[in-house]
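Batch manifest, entry 17 of 40.
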Amino acid sequence: MRQKAINEASINDLMEVFYEKIRVDKDLGEIFNHAVGTSDEAWEAHKQKIGGFWSSVLLGSGVYTGNPLQKHFELPPFPREFFSIWLGLFEESLDEIYSQECKAVILQKAQMVANRFMNMLYTN
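Output type: structure tokens
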């Protein structure tokens, strides 16, 4: 049954589903595996950290500390189009976890984050 509420548990479910897709994606997998690592322990830590990011964005929890934009600046250059792939996988994952109403709220935030990152990374 799809979640009708955005809460810590559903965000954790989202992180599980989403990052399983990312790890094996033909375009994004290599970038993420290089940045995060390939061990399950490294991925668990990453999912927990990024889950905290989404908890802060969606619930106002304030648990995330860090600078996600800076982390993207530190990556080797990658095509702008990869943000569309990221968003597509994120939306697929939302479909598996959330009701349409929750999905719409989260997807709007994800699109805003992606657009901000693209503007900062690719606009000189």
